[in-house]
């Protein structure tokens, strides 16, 4: 058996990516020279590190259950080991002594709770509901959900690695997806929703005078407003524009490192991108040339969002939010208040309020009319990684309905906020 540092580093890198720690993954990838390894990421299955660790835990548990002479000890009373317990010799020794003592006793098997539930349900008793109520003595702050049955779901198979992002075409039944297999795909659900055709958009770079796969993740994509063009951003540092028939229209190559986000403006003449090189760029979508590069952040830029066809906001790991405008050489507004990296920003439908979320576990609402935030929303107990405005309120088709904001966090909750009142409305 051989284990190389490159292999270990790659599995750790993939684990960080899959767990949503994209910024930590990037830093680790740079320091461990992941890009220089010969490992083909498309061949490594998702959750590879967790899988091999789980197998290692099972092996340790098996070792505990075997005597020195090879005889097997009944280990049914052995509780599952934690990862930390499994690497501590004293804990392993005490566990082995414990199951040896238990094996000497005759333990009557307990009746399976599931059998009781099934038997009760067969008689029409609401045992499941009573069981849930008995096990949760405190009321849960969670709204009920509706589970979609498998026969109502369509599974789109084709990607060879984890899928990071997807987006519906605004005009047609086309779905775009971006993956760690260095491809984007366009799924056509017009003709056969249960078995859609797919176009594979391979992201290649020129090497040795020929086109070769970039082997870099496609982590951002966006359709233009009329649904005729798709823009994709990749960890290879290039943005690309594609037609709906899968043809590459142009390549945008000014960033010096991975692209974390990109967005079309409503008019469809400009594309905005954010990269690890600490800059944001406005591109001319027709010519493929960059119109202006904004080097105002002091750390990687993580997200961007258009306010109008020529002005936008950007956020960064430097904890700052800048509002910039095409043709202006410095930010027209800077918001500061977060105490950790800002993961995402979104303008409301009217372009007057800007929402931001951060690793500091807060959600903030900003206005161009003042420097400090107008609302500092605190309820999540882990990092908040994405936010979305409701299509209600001023400048929408539902102007008489309240403007709402949704936030999603690593605390496993989605929270809905009443922006006018500045308080939490419900938890999902």
Task: Please name the defining characteristics of this protein.
428 residues; alpha+beta; four-stranded antiparallel sheet; 7 helices; 33% strand
Explain this structure.
- The chain is α+β, with helices and mostly antiparallel strands.
- 18% of the residues lie in helices and 33% in strands.
Tell me the layout of helices and strands.
Blueprint: H1 5-18, H2 22-31, H3 48-64, H4 83-86, H5 89-103, H6 113-122, H7 127-135, E1 163-168, E2 174-179, E3 183-188, E4 197-202, E5 204-207, E6 210-213, E7 218-223, E8 229-234, E9 239-243, E10 248-252, E11 259-264, E12 270-275, E13 280-284, E14 290-294, E15 301-306, E16 311-316, E17 320-325, E18 333-336, E19 342-347, E20 353-358, E21 362-367, E22 375-378, E23 384-389, E24 404-409, E25 414-418, E26 423-427
Helix pairs in contact: 1-2
Radius of gyration (CA) equals 26 Å
Percentage of residues in strands: 25-35%
Mean pLDDT: 84
What's the number of extended β-strand segments?
A: 26
Sketch the major β-sheet: 4 strands, antiparallel
Oligomerization state of this entry? Answer: single chain
Number of helices: 7
- Strand order across the largest sheet: 1-2-3-4
- Terminal CA distance reads 47 Å
Please identify the structural class as seen in this structure: alpha+beta
């Amino acid at each position: 058996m051989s284990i190389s540092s490159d292999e270990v580093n790659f599995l750790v890198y993939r684990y960080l990516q899959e767990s949503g720690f994209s910024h930590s993954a990037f830093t680790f990838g740079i320091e461990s020279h992941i890009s220089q390894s010969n490992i083909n990421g498309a061949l490594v299955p998702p959750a590879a590190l967790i899988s091999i660790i789980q197998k290692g835990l099972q092996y340790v548990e098996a070792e505990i259950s075997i005597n020195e002479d090879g005889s097997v000890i009944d280990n049914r009373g052995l509780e599952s080991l934690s990862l930390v317990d499994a690497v501590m010799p004293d804990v392993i020794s005490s566990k082995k002594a414990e199951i040896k003592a238990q094996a000497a006793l005759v333990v009557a098997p307990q009746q399976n709770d599931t059998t009781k539930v099934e038997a009760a349900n067969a008689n029409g008793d609401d045992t499941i509901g009573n069981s849930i109520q008995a096990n949760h003595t405190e009321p849960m702050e969670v709204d009920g959900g509706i589970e979609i049955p498998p026969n109502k779901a369509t599974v789109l198979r084709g990607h060879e690695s984890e899928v990071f992002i997807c987006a519906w075409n605004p005009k047609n039944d086309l779905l775009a997806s971006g993956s760690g297999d260095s491809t984007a795909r366009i799924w056509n659900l017009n003709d056969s929703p249960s078995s859609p055709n797919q176009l594979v958009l391979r992201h290649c770079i020129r090497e040795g005078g020929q086109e070769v796969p970039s082997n870099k993740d496609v982590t951002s994509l966006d359709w233009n407003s009329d649904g005729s063009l798709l823009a994709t951003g990749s960890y290879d540092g290039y943005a690309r524009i594609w037609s709906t028939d899968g043809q590459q229209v142009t390549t945008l190559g000014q960033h010096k490192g991975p692209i974390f986000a990109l967005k079309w403006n409503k008019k469809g003449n400009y594309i905005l991108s954010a990269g690890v090189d600490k800059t944001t760029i406005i591109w001319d979508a027709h010519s493929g040339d960059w119109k202006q590069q904004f080097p105002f952040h002091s750390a990687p830029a993580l997200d961007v969002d258009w306010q109008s066809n020529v002005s936008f906001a950007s956020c960064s790991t430097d904890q700052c939010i800048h509002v910039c405008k095409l043709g202006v050489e410095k930010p027209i507004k800077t918001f500061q208040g977060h105490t950790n990296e800002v993961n995402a920003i979104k303008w409301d439908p009217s372009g007057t309020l800007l929402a931001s979320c951060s690793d500091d576990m807060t959600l903030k609402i900003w206005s161009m009319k003042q420097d400090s935030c107008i609302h500092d929303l605190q309820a999540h107990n882990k990092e908040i990684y994405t936010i979305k405005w409701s299509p209600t309120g001023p400048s929408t088709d539902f102007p008489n309905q309240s403007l709402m904001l949704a936030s999603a966090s690593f605390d496993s909750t989605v929270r809905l906020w009443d922006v006018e009142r500045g308080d939490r409305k419900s938890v999902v």
